[in-house]
Design a protein that fits this description.
GO terms for molecular function: iron ion binding; oxidoreductase activity. Keywords: Membrane, Transmembrane, Transmembrane helix. It is found in: Membrane. By secondary structure, the protein is mainly alpha-helical. Helices cover 66% and strands 0% of the residues. Helix 2 runs antiparallel to helix 4 and helix 2 crosses helix 5. The two termini are 19 Å apart.
């Protein structure tokens, strides 16, 4: 079904708020945490492929576990009613709704799990870029409503 223009506009406003007002400061803090962890943030060499793959595996595992339990937490009555219900207002599967969430939820459920792995392993910037790109694409595909070849079906999200 076509999305009503007013609803799409409201979605775009909240998503832009989340991406600018919450995500930018969060990434600035994340940078400082990576510095404290000793991540090679200014490095003229790329890490070896085996290290990149190992770091990506850690990132995937930590993100999946953290997102799952935080998402379950946001389904508790009080948090659902006041915070998480915003994300569930959208029934039409379109990718932009991946970031359509209360700002608190966006930080705790979307951004924190994304950065746990890179902070834990003190990831190289190139690894962090690959990880952030893959995680973002995965989230957009889960919210897209399309089942792309060779990828997991987003149907689980539609049923959720």
């Amino acid at each position: 079904q076509p999305v009503p223009p007013w609803a799409l506009f409201k979605c775009i406003l909240l998503v832009n708020f989340n991406l600018v007002v919450t995500a930018v400061p969060f990434m600035m803090v994340s940078y400082q945490v990576l510095v404290l962890r000793g991540a090679p943030l200014i490095c003229p060499h790329l890490p070896p492929l085996h290290r990149v793959l190992a770091h990506l595996l850690v990132c995937i595992l930590l993100e999946e576990v953290a997102f799952y339990y935080l998402h379950r937490l946001f389904h508790q009555r009080l948090l659902y009613t006041h915070v998480h219900k915003i994300h569930h207002q959208w029934k039409s599967p379109i990718a932009i709704t991946a970031a359509y969430a209360h700002p608190v939820e966006h930080v705790l459920c979307n951004l924190v799990p994304l950065m746990l792995g890179p902070v834990l392993v003190a990831a190289h910037p190139a690894t962090l870029w690959v990880w952030a790109t893959l995680a973002t694409l995965g989230t957009l595909i889960h919210h897209s409503g399309y089942h792309l070849p060779f990828l997991l079906s987003p149907q689980f999200h539609d049923f959720h």
